[in-house]
Amino acid sequence: MVVDVGTSPQQHDRYKWTALTNTTAAVFMSALDGSIVLIALPAIFNGIRLDPLAPGSIAYLLWMIMGYRLVQAVLVVSVGRLGDMYGRVRIYNAGFAVFTVASVLLSFDPFLGAHGALWLIGWRLLQAVGGSMLQANSAAILTDAFPAEQRGFALGINQVAALAGMFIGLVAGGLLTAWDWRAVFWVNVPVGIFGTAWAYRKLRETGQRGGGRVDWWGNATFGIGLSALLVAVTYGLQPYGAHTMGWTNPLVLGLGFSGIALLAVFLLIETRVAAPMIELSLFRLRAFTAGNLAGLAISIGRGGMQFILIIWLQGIWLPLHGYDYIDAPLWAGIFLLPLTAGFLLAGPVSGYLSDRFGSRGLATWGSILFAATFVGLILLPTDFSYWSFAVLIALNGVASGMFGSPNSSSIMGSVPARQRGAASGMRSTFQNSGTALSIGVFFALMIAGLASSLPDALNTGLQQHGVSAAVAHQVAGLPPVATLFAAQLGINPIQHLLQPTGALSSLSAGQVADLTGRQFFPHLISSAFHDGLVVVFAVGAALALLAALASALRGRPRPEKGKA
Questions:
Q1: Do the beta carbons of residue 88 and residue 207 sit within 8 Å?
Q2: Is residue 139 within 8 Å of 151, Cβ to Cβ?
Q3: Cα–Cα 20 to 30 A to 20, which of 44, 54, 136, 283?
Q4: Could you tell me the pTM of the whole model?
């Protein structure tokens, strides 16, 4: 039923802007927290006195990076369905409160070492539960509140807030950790408290609620199956035995196959229960299916690109241009600002244009431009001219904005009003799963490329600078995942690799300066990194073209019948 009966047009007009500002603040905060930790990781692990690159600590590092996205990917459909049943605003408001409480608990970590890391990971997972409740229902609340002719603009603002939060977090993390590592969690507390109070006071149910029962078996098989699959990706990136990665690990294989099997069982259950968690009939809607497929492809490409660009800047370009490794995370965020600017410029404009001219053309051409920027990045030399790089990433941001807002509007406008919560959850699941999968896919491609050439280059380079053959061979045989993470964390990779061996103490001051300076590692890794980069960005371009094809074939959404 519709709950806001009796409101005047003026009151409804005021309410829709209240819904837009509150949900925009919420999704920005949730997305910001998903990325702010990436830059803050060195300060966080230093604060709890734990070496993130120690063999036993890489799992903590990966869970800090991927745990938040994993939980969001798993939960958004379920909490979106709960919003359809019991009220989207009710679930959304509860999510604001959960997110805020978790932020407070994160900032008061009482432990050090592994226990400190587990405290942070645990409350980050709870924070992701709150973020899921916000993400899953925000688009549905906006779709209920705005008429069809303004919906693209509203969802565009919301989508840009989410995407901008991802990249602004890269800068905010560097700035806040210069003060205190706990500040990356404090920043959410005042916004969360104000936003929660504001949401409970001002938001109201304006859409249809479907009632019904909870699909417990569907929720269980979907949640456990997707979790198993994403956890397998997480552990597949870690070394196993003599292998550089863990894809042959029986645990990874077992989790991967179990996850796929459970998801197959989930699909079978959904065809047989009276009140399914996901209405599979929604996938008969061409605009819904094509939009989600395109969104998944773009999310995988965008998430992988984010990590590769950070490593490229922090591990190679910034040191070559005189920046210390310890300062590289902050400057990487600053040099990526054109990407954020592209989002902020194109998102609202494309949302407005999609209301006037439709979603298909904008989403299709946005995807094509997205693919073209990947080709442009492939053609750049490793030590590029910054302005060429800035133009390409700005265009990439524009392309994402062109695609994101119209795609979201097309998906949400194609479904019946009573199923908008579940549809919003599925849209978020595809997006978050794509981001989580991109880390596994692109890191695996990059690590595989480095593993074929980096050990020989490292072994030769170290011996040429006075390191003994035994130590050089030992260090060159270490898994390249540690080298990649060192570059991402703003840690001097060569110093980090050599310090435990004691080799630096036996070298002259000049040899130590050469090895641990700003030139040796970037020159050493440049060729192998660029080979891997070509593969990674070629896959990204192919995914973008797949998104363009899906967008072109989505058709026109059916006109709505009545007011939601």
A1: yes
A2: no
A3: 283
A4: 0.79
